[in-house]
Amino acid sequence: MTMPELGKVCKGQVSRWPSKKEVKALIASANHGRTDHPPIVVVRSDEAAVNNVESTPGGIGLVNVYSICGEVTVLRAGGKLPL
Questions:
Q1: SS3 for 37-72, per residue?
Q2: Would you place residue 46 in the very low, low, confident or very high pLDDT band (cuts 50, 70, 90)?
Q3: Is the pTM of this model over 0.70?
Q4: Residue 77 and which of 3, 6, 27, 68 are 20 to 30 A apart at CA?
């Protein structure tokens, strides 16, 4: 996602999200059948995402800023930290 796209999402300017089927197809395509170590993993909670990132060297996740804890590093997006 580009910074301008992220900006549109944050400003509520995105009027259409992909359907669940479209998202699943995009993820399957990106993972290229790599079931042993897929590049994209969907989890059910922010806590699960943080745990997954903690246990995956080089892992990146998107979570609510208040869910961040443990041994993860917060990255800047567009040169800015969350909040």
A1: CCCCCCCCCHHHHHHHHHCCCCCCCCCCHHHCCCCC
A2: very high
A3: no
A4: 27
